[in-house]
Amino acid sequence: MVSKTPAKKNNKAGAAGTVVDTLNARLADLIDLHWQIKQAHWNVTGMDFIAVHRLFDEQAAMAREMADTLAERARGLEGVAEGTIRLAVERSTIDEFPHGLIDAKKAIAELVDRYEQISGQFKTASDEAADADDKGTEDAYIELIRLIDKQTYFLRSHLK
Q1: How many whole angstroms separate alpha carbon 103 and alpha carbon 69?
Q2: Please, what are the domains in the chain?
Q3: How far apart are CA 139 and CA 148, in angstroms?
Q4: Residue 1 vs residues 35, 54, 58, 88: alpha-carbon distances, Å
Q5: Could you read off the pLDDT of 82-104 as tens digits, one per residue?
Q6: What is the reported pTM?
Q7: How many alpha carbons fall within 13 Å on the CB side of residue 20?
Q8: Are 24 and 142 in contact (CB under 8 A)?
């Protein structure tokens, strides 16, 4: 995994500030994931092209919705949602997606890896929210972990 610049402090005191910082770090991962899925969507090749192309579009939309959930949670905690593409590039912890044309099976395997990276990050973030006694944020992460794991299952099923 690539080491990236940590999120800036969010001008919130104590545990709430740490939770907001982590929300923004995970927001960066989801913004990056969204655009990596679109990269795959635009450049996928192979016999299953149209089905995979459409699947990737659905997954990109879902990543966008997940990002919105985290941004709105940060705002709900009276923090700032830091979701520009430049911040995402600086802060994302997920590996870069391959450039150029990519075979459907390889693209799927690459995205499975990205989803697994994000799931791990979200599990850590959920534990952090629990330690901060922030049930709302913990619940948001748990909901997103289920959704991420479901999308991973959908993708992984194509590799069997």
Answers
A1: 32
A2: 14-157 (1.20.1260.10)
A3: 14
A4: 18, 28, 26, 15
A5: 999 999 999 999 999 999 999 99
A6: 0.90
A7: 20
A8: no
Rg (CA), the chain: 16
DSSP 44: E
Using CA atoms of 105, 111, 112, 118 in order, give the dihedral in degrees to the nearest 10: 180
Q: What are phi and psi of 45, to 5 degrees?
A: -135, 165
Assign 78 to helix, strand or coil.
coil
Token pair of 49 as six digits? 């092209």
Element (H, E) at 154: helix 135-157
The share of the chain scoring above pLDDT 70, in percent, equals 91
Q: Which residues touch 98 (CB under 8 Å, ≥6 apart)? A: 106, 110
Beta bridge partners of 102: 44
Question: Is the CA virtual torsion 152, 154, 158, 159 positive or negative?
Answer: positive
Q: Which residues contact 70 (CB under 8 A, 6 or more apart)?
A: 23, 24, 26, 27, 30, 81, 140, 144
